[in-house]
Every structure is written in C-alpha cells, then in structure tokens.
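Reopening this one. Same input as before:
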Amino acid sequence: MTVDELEQETHDLIDAIATQAPGSRHLHLGRLHDIMAAYSRSGRAAPVSLRRLLDELTSEIVEARYENMPV
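Same output, byte for byte:
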C-alpha cells in the first residue's frame, strides 16, 4: 500500500467511524487494527488521531461487553 493509499484509507475509516452511533463504532476496530498494522509495516508511525481513536474504540468495546453484566 502506498503512502497516499494508506492516508486515504485512514481518512475513509475516520469518516466512517464519525458517522456511527457511539455504541456501534467499535465494530470498526478490526479495520482500524489493519490500518495500524499497515503503518507499522511501512515503517511509519501511526498518526496520533488513529492511536487516540484506537483507545476510544477499545474502551467502547469493553463497555459494550460488560454493560449488561449482572453485578
């Protein structure tokens, strides 16, 4: 994947996640991991915005998983 393709994929992912409701944004986590891996393979650091988004989506999936768990 070229640098331009990777940046376009990043932009497309961020746009796709921005249009989702907070409870379903974590469904894009797999694609986010793939893009982060592509940055790593290319020898480039992932943008801060992607790392922040990864943290947010990881928190959302944890909350979604344990939200209805009895106490």
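So the earlier flakiness isn't reproducible anymore. For the record, Residues 3-66 form one domain.
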